[in-house]
Amino acid sequence: MAGTRDLSAHEQTFDRIREVRDQAIHHARLSRQFAAERRDLMQGLIAQGVSQADIARELGVTRQAIQKMLAC
């Protein structure tokens, strides 16, 4: 094929890029799962009468941060 370069000398680098990409995808999936669990746990607290302000205080974040977490 015209213009094709031999990149075999860079195979280790390409392999590492693939590994890092796969790890990033895996961590993104885990992050979504943890965000959903966090939201469910907070909704459970709210259903039991705990306020967003109380949750925020316990977690050391703002009430606005709690609202964002609940929206995800």
TrEMBL record:
It comes from the Bacteria. InterPro entries: Fimbrial_Adhesin_Reg (IPR053721). The keyword Transcription regulation applies. Keywords: Transcription, Transcription regulation. This is Homeodomain-like domain-containing protein.
